[in-house]
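Much of our argument rests on the idea that a fold can be written as discrete symbols. In the encoding step, the backbone of a single protein was reduced to a row of integers, each denoting a local shape. This step matters because it turns folding into a mapping between discrete strings. For completeness, the protein is quoted in full, as a sequence line and a line of structure tokens:
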Amino acid sequence: MGLAGLPPTQFGFHAQQAVEKLLKALLSERGISYPWTHNLKDLINLLTKSGETLPRTPLAIMELTAFASVWRYDDPPQEMLLDSAEASDTVRILREFVVKRVAELNRQV
């Protein structure tokens, strides 16, 4: 079981959703269009091309992509494992980064 008693696949889904929304918020703040996607690598690539350097995180952000639709639409495979503490720290670090960057971008306007 993950944090708050959630199975790893369900916890991974929520972690992926949080990261996806944070990346899309930063893209939006920068005025960058993005496709309808749950693929975190695609979103990261757009940010990187715009000059953003994302912070180092305990879990490679892209690893969460696998949890995007599997839990929501399919029966999750039993072998999908996730260190929920690393996932939580990853979401926290990314959230702190995005909040800081959005504030910086708003000051530049």
Observations:
- The longest helix spans residues 84-108.
- The chain has one domain: 3-108.
